[in-house]
Amino acid sequence: MYLYNVEHVLINVGTGYYVEKIAEDAKGLLKKETDFLPKQMEKTQPALQEKHAIKQAVTEMMMSKKTPNSHQLTALSHADSSCLSCHLSQADPYNK
Q1: Which GO terms describe its cellular component (predicted)?
Q2: Distance from first CA to last CA of the chain, Å, rounded?
Q3: Which residue would you say has higher pLDDT here, 2 or 43?
Q4: Residues whose CB falls within 8 Å of the CB of residue 23, separated by 6 or more in sequence, listed in order
Q5: Are 21 and 9 spatial neighbours (Cβ–Cβ below 8 Å)?
Q6: Which residues pair with residue 10 across a beta bridge?
Q7: Cα 28 to Cα 32: distance, rounded to the nearest angstrom
Q8: Residues 6+ apart with CB under 8 A from 87
Q9: Are 74 and 87 in contact (CB under 8 A)?
Q10: Spans of all domains in the chain
């Protein structure tokens, strides 16, 4: 592949749109974009960290509500009342 006209280039301006620019203008536009992106990343980083912390807190809360304590889990898994440890703990007045 060969470039026949190096004075004009196509620049992707987003969402599938291209603009024909003179090479010098294109360099300026690309320089402007490369300066803009790191600044935007610095601006959005704190908000992203805050949202991540909120997501972690919500996930932990959901997991704590989803997981019943061990006795409830044992009672649910032994619904036929055949679990000896459940019967013993219920019958023992000192085990509360």
Answers
A1: cytoplasm; prefoldin complex
A2: 82
A3: 43
A4: 6, 7, 8, 9
A5: yes
A6: 20
A7: 6
A8: 81
A9: no
A10: 8-91
* Pair 30, 45: CB distance under 8 Å: no
Residue 52 to residue 39: CA distance in whole angstroms: 20
Q: Tell me which amino acid residue 41 is.
A: M
pTM: 0.45
Q: Quick: pLDDT tens for 34-90.
A: 999 999 999 999 999 999 999 999 999 888 887 655 455 555 555 555 555 555 555
Look up residue 84 and give its two tokens: 């000896």
Long-range contacts: 32-35, Cβ < 8 Å, 24+? none
Residues 6 or more apart in contact with residue 78 via CB below 8 angstroms:
86
Query: Which residue reads 């959005």 in tokens?
Result: 44
- Evaluate whether 21 touches 11 at the Cβ level (below 8 Å): yes
CB 13 within 8 Å of CB 19 = yes
